[in-house]
């Protein structure tokens, strides 16, 4: 076991797969010689050569389009989009091509690609370095959508994603690349090395896709969260003084409804949190499923705490971010009803 | 002294009720362009990109250096080529007919463009991969794709290799070097480059071939593809089928001020040639040269096939609303079947009689298969594929929520 | 008053706006000389000249990108994307540019564009001529999303959209271009001329954005629908024999929550229907809002009837389409609970 | 005799710890290219697109036909230009400093590229519109954009015209001919073409100018823009700032086998010129020519400005990880300020003393405004903008759900 930041854990996953599978390739903007603007691929080109790890032109559509062609032939490209905010030029190739190739060709061709991208705000990146576009992918049949919240999961999920036979959108919550974040932006930041989940095995292991995990057991209310918001939810529960069960979804599509149902049937209350804008965010899907699956157990409406329906602002970042206060307020509201 | 700024709107040479007019198209003589060395660079390609490689002259003779280039085993290849084209016509004819009879929802012909896919495919090797559009069924015919599979898809019946999931004509035939067609124009072009990169990385000696229509060269995937090919230099042949129309839209709307599509490609530092796509010999010669060049590691190469879409865009289209009815007849490069036939007769390896006989035989072959395939159901007489098919293959393993949905559906 | 099909009504709207506002432009693939593959713009180029109505290259991103630049200068482009299935190349320009321009420039620049596109299935178009991508736009702050279900609304909503100061995604349910469709594909199709809502005024009028309409009053259950599904819902209610209140949303963003709340508070039951794939579809948002707003009135879980989570198939189209049987089953289920 | 297919991976001439090496860059002599007529066509542009228009020679003299082209009222324009560049440097210096002190989250310099935006902007008219990237602040300086506004945005305080919504450096200044910058590379390029089409349709005599970096030419919006401009021929000047780097990525990864970006443009049938971007006189001359050409209805024109990004990509970047530390000093086209200063001294309209004095004055001016603006809050000493600002301007009229959210927020 080593102590790793999430960045190191992701790098270790790619290192592992580049080592044990010659068909794995890593490419994207600035990922080659330089090792990525967040350093996730640092050292990989030097170790594996530029035929395995290389720089691309600034064309996200080409990055994914090339990956689709390679994957159809049997390679396993794990590509980086520099920020999730820049994935839109590739939206056609991801949703119409990668996601559909297996089905439309009746499995003659498949598309085992991973599209990694840093997601979410909290780094003063303004509206084009802060977005959380997960719901734009969860609506697309054929995709899997994954988002880790710990270094351990990051490595295990990324290895599982690269090994998955289908296309995976792999969202990396950049606010917690270097340490957990409990939502107090003025507080001191804690590096991963001081957090237990930074214990990461050196070799190969996987965290299965499609399985949520209960991060904190509780009896009064269920909080559904993922990525950075898992920690913010933890802080909020403490602040609100409620005995919350916090579920870290880890995979949004396919969703682990069983774990969720189990919890909500127990608690009878549920709050859903995410950073993405509220309307038609992934929270809507969670609520739709939970109210249908657990209707007779619900003691109060399911509440959403999410980014406001506006672009992510630069200066008012912390007013936009669904921090512990807003979540705590929703928890209290849900408890009172 | 200022001029007024006025926007430009490209116009076709003639509209309905006008006389077809191709006088603005410059048709160079056959045989005047040489065969460049495989090291050809973009900077040295202007003559090929602005000119038009032609072998068959107006008298039906094969002339010039490109004719010499394919002089070996030509007879055999021409007999094969003519057969491919006649078979293609028979298939198009019968399937158009099936659509007219309401037996399928949709069909789309490649009339006038049979030489291109046919001649190209015959130069490929097993394991090479085409990334086609919906108008390259001639690749399938020349790859000897079973007619039963081809037609099964048109009827979306039990013979359909894709189990009814795709629109008729959107074939997928991996074993026959034919990538799954997407309805979204352009996307396949950069995928072809990715596939070719895979070939180079594996060192397997295979190549990829991208296909795109003149209209779809405007799509951004065209840029993605050319740029990626220019940067990484994989073994890919990038085909542009310029058939003058994109549904109702004249090719000038896609070309803008570019003289030719091949010229557009040169800007990326990729060599490009423009070829008479209605000249089967030219197709064979340039395809052979380009494929060999790519396979031998000289990097990407583009070919603009200059041709004319003689048929309507599809069975949903009525071209008489936007172009003269008889424009196809006025096309200065003629009809590929007629031209090859004339040449072969002149060459002494073909006769009018054999031609008529061959046409009849192929039509009979096609009709026999068609009849057999129609037994498995058509739109008029459906034999439904299981609805549960919808859920298979969305993922390798069916996730829980799809299982629930299938259950809800009753399966 | 004239009798118009939806196509004629849409054309009439554009004709009206081209006539009364010199800054209105209409362009897209095949929309100029030919008048569009669905003929919505037929005759407009002839009438207004090609400086106002013109053909574009096949590049949806360019179509919208040009429109953004024009609109920022004060023009009002109303552009066509040939099928909603082909909007994805323009997704970046729509969601990152058009939707954000007003906000990010603090209103120095605005973006009054309309992006029209035929949506939905039922015409044997297979997976790339049948999609319903509305939820991919309702998640985007800054956009409005409109979908008419009658010729009268089509004209009034399109005029309102062209006059709106912000970007509008205008979805045209192509299955009902020529007549209403009650979900029985083997039945005879009825042209609009035989339907009352085809009475369309010749001149200028608007149907306001953001306002739903109750298409059929009822007491037992509320059905939320839009586009083609309004008619299918009507047939389903009849089939199920329930006294359903059918709300035609007309505008999905911003949503007319008041009309919905009013109805569900009355009926206590709700079914949401759409053609788009179920997971993270717009139905999820509707359910999330309704359960929050009407929780204490709900007598049963809100049910969704939607497209399956798979690509829209060609041959099995009617097994995929959420037809009257499936909706009726959901209505009965909701009534029994 | 088959060669192996191997992929190509472009490499910069030197990496950290290596000696800077620009020997592969061919620098033609100043003054050798003529001034083409405004009717210039793409086909006749190759010399301009592959060459390099330069006016200032190594001795600091202005030579050749392009020098003559701007001979009228030049002294005045040079004094202005030098002042613009010095002011730009002072601003960059002070704002970089502010970021180092933690007073703002982010900054990004344009060091080495000051001549381009400065010289270009001074040739525009009121009502023309630039569609810039984040590295064209020199356009704002030369448009006399108030420093208070410029700096207000850097500090995201009450002086920020965008009320904190945008990242510092992502300015928007309509009255100063500066379109709202997007973080998404490339998108503005096709919007510029759309704006220019609007100008033509209104016949208002205005033009648009698109700006893009060498790296971002790879984006698909570049294709959208060039194609649309080629088709509709609106009055637009399409600028490409080739500063050799895109963050850590060498320009060869964006150019592929294209010899120059200007050559890429020619493929679209749009004429293009390549210009020494560190030569203020060349910038003025070519900008004036191109802008006039566009305004006079000769259609789109592209300019590749050949320069070097002397600064790091941004305050988040450390270029010593991917290029030699002293590469900027080795750049064969020198520094634009130094070159113009040398020329002006030689010309007798400038002295070392006046230069030093001017630098000091401008720095003082900038610092004075900075001090004033900082009073309204910095990151170190925040004076928050109202959170309710988040909801304003999402739509013209705030819809109900945003009203509810604002309420939930407590406003
Ligand atoms: C992205 C996208 N936009 C629009 C369409 C609709 N469409 C189908 S075919 C076609 C014309 C294509 O013309 P061209 O590329 O010249 O091919 P051809 O039909 O002439 O073979 C159009 C616009 C589409 N399929 N995909
Ligand atoms: C669509 C998109 N992809 C990626 C990025 C991230 N990014 C920001 S700047 C940059 C490099 C741009 O280089 P270039 O165009 O040469 O401009 P320069 O910084 O040299 O002025 C990249 C990759 C982005 N902003 N947008
Ligand atoms: Mg065509
Ligand atoms: Mg650059």
Q: What is shown here, in short?
A:
The complex is a heterotetramer, with 2 copies of chain A (337 residues) and 2 copies of chain B (411 residues). With 337 residues, chain A is α/β, with parallel strands linked by helices.
Structure overview:
The complex is a heterotetramer, with two copies of chain A (337 residues) and two copies of chain B (411 residues). Chain A is built from twelve helices and 14 strands. Chain A has 337 residues and is an alpha/beta fold. A seven-stranded mixed beta sheet of chain A has the order 3-2-4-5-7-6-12, sandwiched between helices. In chain A, helix 1 packs parallel to helix 7, helix 3 runs parallel beside helix 4 and helix 8 crosses helix 12. Chain B is of the alpha/beta class. Chain B contains 15 helices and seven strands. In chain B, strands 1-2-3-7-6 form a five-stranded parallel beta sheet, sandwiched between helices. In chain B, strands 4-5 form a two-stranded antiparallel ribbon. The mean pLDDT of chain B is 97. The chains are: A alpha/beta (337), B alpha/beta (411). At the B-D interface, helix 7, helix 8 and helix 10 of B face helix 7, helix 8 and helix 10 of D. Bound molecules: thiamine diphosphate (2 copies) and magnesium ion (2 copies). One magnesium ion (MG) binds next to strand 4 of chain B.
Number of domains of chain A: 2
Please identify the top-level CATH class of the largest domain in chain A.
Answer: Alpha Beta
Radius of gyration of chain A: 19 Å
Kindly report the average pLDDT value of chain A. 97
Q: Which runs of chain B of at least 5 residues are low in confidence (pLDDT < 50)?
A: none
| Silhouette of chain B | globular
Q: Kindly provide the radius of gyration of chain B, computed on alpha-carbon positions and rounded to a whole number of angstroms.
A: 22 Å
Please provide the ordered H/E string of secondary-structure elements of chain B: HHHHEHHHEHEEEHHEHEHHHH
Percentage of helical residues of chain B? 25-40%
């Amino acid at each position: 076991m080593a102590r790793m930041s999430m960045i190191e854990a992701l790098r270790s996953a790619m290192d592992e797969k580049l080592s044990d599978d010659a068909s794995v390739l890593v490419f994207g903007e600035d990922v080659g010689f330089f090792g990525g603007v967040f350093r996730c691929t640092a050292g990989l080109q030097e170790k594996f050569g530029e035929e395995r790890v290389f720089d691309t032109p600034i064309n996200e559509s080409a990055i994914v389009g090339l990956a689709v062609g390679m994957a159809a032939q049997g390679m396993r490209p794990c590509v980086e989009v520099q920020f999730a905010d820049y994935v839109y030029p590739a939206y056609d190739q991801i949703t119409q091509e990668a996601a559909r190739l297996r089905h439309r060709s009746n499995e003659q061709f498949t598309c085992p690609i991973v599209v990694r991208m840093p997601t979410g705000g909290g780094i003063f990146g303004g509206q084009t370095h802060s977005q959380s576009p997960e719901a734009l992918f969860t609506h697309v049949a054929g995709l899997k959508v994954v988002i880790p919240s710990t270094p351990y999961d990051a490595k295990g999920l990324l290895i599982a994603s690269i090994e998955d036979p289908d296309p995976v959108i792999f969202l990396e919550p950049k606010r917690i690349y270097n340490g957990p974040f409990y939502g107090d932006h003025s507080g001191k930041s804690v590096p991963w090395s001081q957090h237990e989940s930074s214990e990461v095995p050196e070799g190969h292991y996987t965290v299965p896709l499609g399985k949520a995990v209960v991060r904190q057991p509780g009896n009064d209310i269920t909080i559904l969260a993922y990525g950075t918001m898992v920690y913010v939810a933890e802080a909020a529960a403490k602040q609100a003084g409620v005995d919350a069960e916090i579920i870290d979804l880890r995979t949004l599509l396919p969703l682990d409804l069983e774990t969720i149902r189990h919890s909500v049937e127990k608690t009878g209350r549920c709050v859903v949190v995410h950073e993405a804008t509220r309307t038609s965010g992934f929270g809507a899907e969670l609520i739709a499923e939970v109210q249908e699956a657990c209707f007779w157990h619900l003691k109060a409406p399911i509440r959403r705490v999410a980014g406001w329906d506006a672009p992510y602002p630069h200066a008012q970042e912390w007013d936009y971010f669904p921090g512990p206060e807003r979540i705590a307020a929703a928890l209290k509201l849900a408890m009172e009803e | 002294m200022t001029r007024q700024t006025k926007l430009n709107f490209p116009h076709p040479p003639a509209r309905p009720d006008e006389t077809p007019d191709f006088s603005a198209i410059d048709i160079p003589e056959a045989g005047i362009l040489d065969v460049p060395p495989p090291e050809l660079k973009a900077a040295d390609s202007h003559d090929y990109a602005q000119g038009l490689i032609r072998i068959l002259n107006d008298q039906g003779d094969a002339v010039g250096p490109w004719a010499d280039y394919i002089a070996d085993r030509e007879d055999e290849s021409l007999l094969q080529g003519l057969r491919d084209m006649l078979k293609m016509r028979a298939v198009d004819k019968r399937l158009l007919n099936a659509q007219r009879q309401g037996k399928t929802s949709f069909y789309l012909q490649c009339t006038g463009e049979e030489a291109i896919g046919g001649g190209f495919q015959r130069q490929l090797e097993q394991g090479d991969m085409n990334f086609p559009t919906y108008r390259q069924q001639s690749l399938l015919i020349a790859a000897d794709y079973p007619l039963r599979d081809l037609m099964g898809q048109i009827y979306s019946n039990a013979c359909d290799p894709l189990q009814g999931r795709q629109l008729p004509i959107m074939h997928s035939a991996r074993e026959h070097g034919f990538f799954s067609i997407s309805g979204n124009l352009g996307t396949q072009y950069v995928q072809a480059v990715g596939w070719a990169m895979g070939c180079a990385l594996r060192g397997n000696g295979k190549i990829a071939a991208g296909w795109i229509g003149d209209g779809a060269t405007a799509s951004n995937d065209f840029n993605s593809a050319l740029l990626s090919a220019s940067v990484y230099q994989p073994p890919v042949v990038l085909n542009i089928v310029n058939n003058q129309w994109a549904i109702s839209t004249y090719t000038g709307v896609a070309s803008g001020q570019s003289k030719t599509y091949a010229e557009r490609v040169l800007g990326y530092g990729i060599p490009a040639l423009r070829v008479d796509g209605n000249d089967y010999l030219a197709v064979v010669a340039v395809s052979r040269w380009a494929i060999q060049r790519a396979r031998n590691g000289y990097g990407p190469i583009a070919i603009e096939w200059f041709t004319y879409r003689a048929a309507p865009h599809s069975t949903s289209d009525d071209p008489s609303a936007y172009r003269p009815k008889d424009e196809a007849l006025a096309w200065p490069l003629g009809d590929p079947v007629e031209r090859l036939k004339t040449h072969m007769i002149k060459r002494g390896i073909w006769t009018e009689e054999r031609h008529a006989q061959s046409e009849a035989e192929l039509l009979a072959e096609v009709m026999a298969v068609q009849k057999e395939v129609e037994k498995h159901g058509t739109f008029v007489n459906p034999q439904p594929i299981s609805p549960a098919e919808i859920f298979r293959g969305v993922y390798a393993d069916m996730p829980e929520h799809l299982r629930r949905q299938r259950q809800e559906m009753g399966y």
